[in-house]
Specification:
77% helix; Homeodomain-like_sf; 0% strand; 189 residues; mainly alpha; 2 domains; DNA-binding; Arc Repressor Mutant, subunit A; elongated
């Protein structure tokens, strides 16, 4: 009985890991079940038996990927600009290219929109959590505008411009992002 339960759990883990791996590379929920099955070393029927449905499979896999990303980005304390920039770059170096490709497909796909919206919401929350405390003395209207500016300064498109388009070494690109952040949070008398 125990061996059967362990084998079933191993199959379940392989199925969801295969789906999450595909999501990490493509950030799409229109991935074929055949691709998941091949990655897990099982049949499509087994994938559906384990997951229940394609929608459930990708909901669980997407939650797994989001949890990994959240863990990856949690190494910075509020107000620590250097750590915030480092963790953003760690994330963008791993996922930035796939995120950029996904964003390019947003207008042409109803499947991609919800994934992109989750990313936007989480990015803004993280900017507010990490850099918002640096704006504590600003009036609400100025603070809201500054948060918008920080969201832009720390965005994956900024990383893409610096690293991919301009070809800057990571250290130089990080220094540029820090400069933008510091320019925004600098108190004006």
């Amino acid at each position: 009985m125990r061996a059967r339960a362990e084998a079933a759990e191993d199959t379940r883990r392989r199925v969801f890991d295969a789906a999450a791996d595909l999501l990490r590379r493509r950030l799409r929920v229109d991935i074929r079940l055949e691709d998941v099955a091949a990655g897990a070393g099982v049949s499509v029927q087994t994938v559906l038996r384990v997951a229940g449905s394609k929608a459930d499979l990708f909901r669980v896999a997407f939650d797994q990927v989001l949890s990994e990303i959240t863990g990856q980005l949690s190494d910075a304390e509020p107000g620590d600009v250097d750590a915030a920039v480092r963790t953003w770059f760690d994330h963008y170096e791993q996922f930035g290219d796939v995120v950029i490709r996904t964003l390019a497909e947003e207008a042409d796909s109803t499947v991609v929109g919800p994934i992109v919206e989750v990313g936007r919401t989480k990015h803004r929350q993280r900017v507010e959590q990490l850099l918002g405390p640096l704006l504590a003395t600003r009036p609400a209207e100025q603070r809201d505008r500054a948060i918008d500016a920080l969201v832009c300064a720390c965005d994956v498109y900024t990383w893409k411009l610096l690293r991919r388009d301009f070809g800057r070494p990571r250290a130089d690109a990080e220094a540029t992002m820090r400069l933008m952040i510091e320019s925004i949070v600098e108190t004006r008398e």
